[in-house]
Design goal:
Blueprint lengths: L1 H26 L3 H12 L12 H30 L2 H16 L5 E4 L3 H13 L3 E5 L2 H10 L2 E4 L5 H6 L7 E4 L4 H14 L4 E5 L6 H7 L3 E3 L1 H14 L1 H12 L6 E6 L9 E2 H4 L1 H5 L2 E7 L3 E3 L7 E2 L4 E6 L1 H10 L1
Parallel strand pairs: 1-2, 1-4, 2-3, 4-5, 5-6
Antiparallel strand pairs: 7-12, 8-11, 9-10, 9-12
């Protein structure tokens, strides 16, 4: 539509130029007189001529009136259509969207708003974190706009599109496109642009997981494999599955699983879990400790010392986790 508006403006400019140079050539008028005569002629306002017209000037004026009326009708019709159909509003919304995207920092990027990507986006929205969704289809852009998500329409395998999504300032990226090759290219491009970016990629085949990991992804998930294992666990260990559903989704009770980092300024830094009395002070449980040097401890003892940089996997209510967050 913008091209049509530009074309309409071009037509109007061409008519003005045609009339101005025509009068200057036929009647020998100055540029200002010729332009003035052209404007009052195509506007059909009925003002007197700048000077008496010659026979050639009268013929030219008749031609100019016909061309001018047609040009004005086309130009103003196109501009009115542009404004009435909401294209102007869409253009302004797009500019506002670009401004908000440029202000993002430490945000997440979701590539692909299909069956998997839409779930990721809804989850991020529920967590209240900043994120942007990227997809090529117009329907996906409409879905994102309706949901109130920041969105960018484009091919995420293109380096320029990822840069426009703020990949260099982003904290994490999830690529959930339909083909493994596309997810591989997105991972590779994103890793090239941001070495510290945490990348999670979707794969449709187990054989593709290693290739996508080599391309730069930190984690690769195959939904059908995960779904099959989950269904088997539900059949074999239904109570455990129900418990995991509760603590990972938090839809039925207030308990949830989260990860928290021990900082140097933390009151827990350099103290053991027993000495810190985390359970007594906050009510939250420390289920695992991912140590900087020792790796993941899935069953930490009370004597485990919490060091700066350790990542804790904790379980508790929102209030309990907030108390633990204050200590950390």
């Amino acid at each position: 539509m913008l091209r049509r508006v530009a074309r309409a403006i071009g037509v109007l400019a061409a008519v003005l130029a045609f009339g101005t140079f025509g009068y200057a050539a036929i009647e020998g008028w100055s540029f200002l007189d010729a332009l003035y005569m052209t404007v009052i002629t195509i506007a059909t306002v009925g003002f007197h001529e700048v000077a008496p017209l010659s026979d050639g000037g009268r013929v030219f004026t008749m031609v100019l009136i016909l061309a001018g009326v047609a040009g004005l009708a086309y130009s103003f019709g196109t501009i009115v259509e542009f404004m009435v159909e909401g294209h102007l509003k869409g253009l302004l919304e797009g500019r506002r969207m670009s401004k908000r995207i440029n202000e993002l920092k430490d945000h997440y990027i979701v590539v692909g708003i299909g069956r998997v990507g839409s779930v990721v986006a809804h989850t991020l929205a529920d967590e209240g974190v900043d994120f942007i969704v990227v997809d090529t289809c117009e329907e996906c852009a409409a879905i994102a706009e309706e949901a109130g998500w920041l969105h960018l329409q484009g091919d995420a395998t293109d380096e320029d599109v990822l840069c426009a999504a703020g990949v260099k300032r982003a904290k994490g990226l999830v690529t959930a496109l339909d083909t493994d090759s596309d997810n591989l290219f997105v991972s590779l491009t994103a890793r090239t642009l941001n070495e510290s970016l945490y990348i999670v990629a979707r794969s449709t085949q187990v054989a593709s997981e290693v290739k996508i990991l080599r391309s730069g992804a930190d984690r690769v998930l195959t939904p059908n494999v995960i779904g099959g294992r989950r269904m088997a666990a539900m059949v074999l260990h239904p109570v455990v599955s129900d418990y995991l559903d509760v603590v990972t989704h938090g839809d039925q009770v207030d308990y949830s699983l989260e990860s928290m980092k021990v900082t140097r300024e933390s009151r827990l830094s350099g103290r053991s879990i027993r000495e810190a009395k985390v359970r007594d002070q906050t009510g939250a449980y420390i289920l695992a400790v991912d140590g900087v040097d020792d790796g993941l401890n899935t069953n930490p003892s009370p004597d485990t010392v919490l060091m700066p940089g350790d990542q804790l996997v904790v379980l508790g209510t929102q209030a309990q986790l907030e108390k633990l967050g204050e200590l950390l």
